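REVIEWER CHECKLIST
Item 1: Sequence provided? yes
Item 2: Single chain? yes
Item 3: Sequence as submitted:
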Amino acid sequence: MFLPVPQAITEAASLENGRKMNLIDPEVIHRRVMHPVEGTLVEIKGVLDVAIDVSKLVIPKPVVPLSDEEIRAFVATKNLRCIVKMMRERGM
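Item 4: Structure as written out by the authors:
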């Protein structure tokens, strides 16, 4: 989960989220500060006392992506344009 809170709050908030998701014995197994002012990505684990009958799950069929030719044909019929702004690196 991503928590947009200061790093000092991250672990306690993550564990509380785990308890609110009904996890038994939640624990933080990984944390990564994305940016000090943005927040932290946290992985937690715990035991969930729920059984899932996989035979009753409805599995959607995978979506087949369009081919390059289909994309080009679509773009051609819509008269679309792509505008790109190139940014130079500092110091160049």
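Item 5: Key structural point noted by reviewer: The mean pLDDT is 90.
Item 6: Recommendation: ____
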